[in-house]
Write a structure and sequence with these properties.
This protein has 108 residues and is mainly α. It has helices at residues 2-16, 20-45, 57-72, 77-87, 103-107; strands at 91-92, 95-96. The longest helix is centred in the N-terminal third of the chain and has 26 residues, at 20-45.
């Protein structure tokens, strides 16, 4: 995983060093390519994207990512407790988080 991250950062640095029209075109191409891969994945999965039913589904992914990063950094612990109270304990790297387990879930 570290190798992939290093390669991604190196490629991003190389793209950012290009002249404006080239890096903007490259960024736009990568963005469109990423969306195409998402739709291809949904095709093979046999499910349509959530935003096809409700446009607010486009906000779910970024909001989820921001919340997970904030929780991982230890920010807003009271919000994390409320999310875990409503949804159950979260998983972090394949293990159930040991912090703040809901008694009803722990007893089950």
């Amino acid at each position: 995983m570290g190798t992939i991250l290093g390669l991604s950062c190196g490629m991003g640095t190389a793209i950012a060093a290009l002249p404006l029209p080239m890096w903007a075109g490259t960024a736009a191409g990568l963005f469109v390519g990423g969306w195409a891969l998402q739709f291809l994945g949904h095709y093979f999965e046999g499910k349509k994207p959530a935003f096809m039913d409700d446009i607010t589904g486009l906000l779910d992914g970024p909001l989820f990512l921001v919340a997970e990063v904030a929780f991982a950094l230890g920010l807003s612990p009271e919000l994390r407790k409320e999310v875990e109270r409503r949804a159950g304990p979260t998983r972090w790297w394949g293990k159930v988080a040991a912090t703040d387990l809901v008694p009803a879930v722990a007893a089950a």
